[in-house]
Automatic annotation (TrEMBL):
Identification of the protein by name: GGDEF domain-containing protein
A Pfam family hit: GGDEF
NCBIfam families: GGDEF (TIGR00254)
Source organism per UniProt: Marinomonas arctica
Upper lineage: Bacteria, Pseudomonadati, Pseudomonadota, Gammaproteobacteria, Oceanospirillales
Domain GGDEF: 172-301
């Protein structure tokens, strides 16, 4: 098989590998090995192409793929080392093969290649940063309630685990406080949904003012909210906050809206640290508070 067909075969295999790696699941147990072999194969293809192709062959473009591939596949640090090695080897091969024929003109080729490497590296780095920022923004939008600005229920179990580890590290337990606005449908029916939304926003601001860390606050849906906090202060906080909401009606233009809340509290050191179980206990206590006439806190049974 001639060199021409050998290079064509290598390029075909590389194309198939590219398709396989890009569409392969990252959860696959051999994914990292596949990526490593893919980058190594590209590295070998570049050196083979440079060693057997004419200086101005279209195959030289494979050299410019390596900065992007190594960065995206292996990360910045590994990419820097591999790109440096690749650039040195490619420059050495070009010098050994073509300096006799092109002389000093070859220096401009190597310089242009170096600038192309640097440009593509910077472009890939910038694109990766923009991509990460966009992903962060999208995750933030997806996990945030648009009306109140509080976190929604999407990541509550993950946040619970994080808060629980912090509480255990401080030799405390974690409390899950469920809060529901009483007779909220009546507010909507009497004053309209715009006023109802204003009540929800007002309540979210009250929560922010009485909780140290806003990452502990969640709007679960409708008029139901959740607060994660250290168990040691949860009971006193729930009683105080319930009374505070009762004592401070909302004044909205010429409207005075007096609303109350019902609260159910469960603690990890009493009911176990499984989130679903803890949530179920707090929910049962919340509805018990409703059945007791609302505007109260249920801490037990």
């Amino acid at each position: 098989m001639t060199a021409k067909y050998q290079l064509a075969l290598i390029e075909t295999v590389l194309l198939l590998l590219t398709i396989f790696v890009w569409f392969c699941s990252k959860q696959w147990r051999f994914y990292k090995w596949a990526v490593f072999l893919y980058v190594a194969f590209i590295f070998a293809c570049i050196l083979t192409g440079i060693s057997h192709s004419p200086l101005h062959s279209g195959r030289q473009v494979w050299v410019l793929i390596f900065p992007m591939t190594s960065y995206l596949m292996l990360g910045r640090l590994a990419g820097i080392w591999l790109n440096s090695i690749c650039l040195c080897l490619v420059s050495s091969i070009l010098y050994l093969r073509f300096y006799e024929y092109f002389g000093k003109e070859l220096i401009s080729v190597v310089i242009n290649l170096s600038f192309a490497y640097a440009f593509l590296w910077g472009l890939t780095h910038s694109a990766e940063r923009v991509h990460k920022k966009m992903l962060y923004a999208l995750k933030k939008i997806a996990s945030t309630d648009p009306l109140t600005g509080l976190a929604n229920r999407r990541n509550i179990s993950q946040c619970y685990q994080h808060q629980l580890q912090q509480a255990v590290g401080e030799k405390d337990a974690l409390a899950l406080v469920l809060i529901d606005l009483d007779n909220f449908k009546k507010i909507n029916d009497t004053h309209g949904h715009d006023v109802g939304d204003a009540v929800l926003v007002d309540f979210a601001e009250r929560l922010r003012a009485h909780v140290d860390n806003n990452d502990q606050l969640f709007r679960l849906g409708g008029e139901e909210f959740c607060v994660l906090m250290p168990a040691a202060k949860s009971k006193d906080w729930a009683l105080m906050f319930c009374q505070y909401v009762y004592d401070t009606p909302l004044r909205l233009n010429d409207i005075k809206i007096h609303y109350t809340v019902s609260i159910g509290v469960s603690c990890s050191h009493e009911e176990g640290d499984d989130f679903k179980h803890l949530y179920t206990i707090a929910d049962q206590r919340l509805y018990k508070a409703k059945s007791l006439g609302r505007n109260c806190v249920v801490l037990k049974g």
